[in-house]
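Below is how a single chain appears once it has passed through the pipeline. First comes the sequence as given, then the structure the pipeline wrote out for it. We keep one example in the README because the format questions we get most often are answered faster by looking than by reading.
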Amino acid sequence: MSQGWNAQDIPDQGGRTAVVTGANSGLGLATTRALAARGARVVLACRDASRGEEAAARVRRVVPGADVAFAPLDLADLASVREFADRFEGDRLDLLIDNAGVMALPQGRTADGFETQFGVNHLGHFALTGLLLPRLLATPGARVVAVSSFVHTLSGLDFDDLNSEHGYRRWIAYARSKTANLLFVHELARRLERAGSEVVAAAAHPGYASTNLQTAGVRMERRRTAERIVGWGNTLFAQTASAGALPTLYAATAPGVRPDSFTGPRLLMTRGAPAPSWRARWTLDDAAGERLWAASEELTGVTYPV
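Resulting structure:
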C-alpha cells in the first residue's frame, strides 16, 4: 500500500455506478465528490430530500459534468429501504458504500422498533445490501464497503440484548453497532467466497474526522456546552472529512483490496494515509458472524442469495 495514497490515486471510475448512503454531508459527501471526480455515476442515498438534492447540486458545482443523483433512503425504516431497492434503476451496481450512521444518540427506536444505533448502522445496511446484492453479483469487479469505527473496540455484541432493552449506554450501543458492521463484512466475505463470487466485501474507518456525527447527539439534547467542546475538538484535533473518506475510497477502488480487510488511517488509527487497521478479535469470530447473520435475517426479513 503506497505511503501517501490519496484521492488522485483513485483509478478511473468511468462507466461504474456507486451508491453512497448518507451522502449529503461529511464522509459520505466527500466520498461522493471523489468518486464523481473520477467519472463514476453516484447515487446519493439520503433520508432528507432537500439536503440530498442540495448535496448533489454542490457536487455538480465543484465537479463539472458530475453524474450524480439523489434518491430517498431512510435506514431507520425498512419499508424505505425496500422502496429504495425497488426503485433502483439498472442491472449493474459496481460499488455499494454503506457509510451512513448515527453515533452516541439518546436512546430511541427506529420505525420498526429497533434500538436506533443498531437499527440504522447495522440492520438498515444489512437489509439494503441484501436487496441490492443480485445487482452486485451480476457486476464484474463489484465491491461492498461498510464504514465502521475504531470505537468498535469498546464492546463486542451482546446476543441476548441486541436492542439494548436491558440497559442503554450510548457509547456501548454505538460500539456494538460498529462491531456488527465488521462482523457483517466478515460473514458476507465468507459467504461470497463459498458461492464462488468475486464480489469483494471490505470495511473501513475514518479515524477521527471532523463531521456533524460527533455533535448530533448532544445537539438533540440541547447540551450547548458539550456541543461547543466537541466542536473545538473537531477543529483542533480531527482531520478533514475528505481525509477521513480516504480509507473508504481505498477499500472501494484500490487494486488488490482483500475481502474482509479493514482499512483506516495510518497514524494511531486516527489520521493519515490509508493503511491496514487493527481490529478486535471478536470481529473475526465465525460463530458470532453466523449468529448475527441469522438474527439480522430474522429481524429484517431479508434473505441473502448467498
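Strands lie at 17-21, 41-46, 67-72, 95-98, 143-147, 200-204, 262-267, 271-276.

See the next section for the split statistics.
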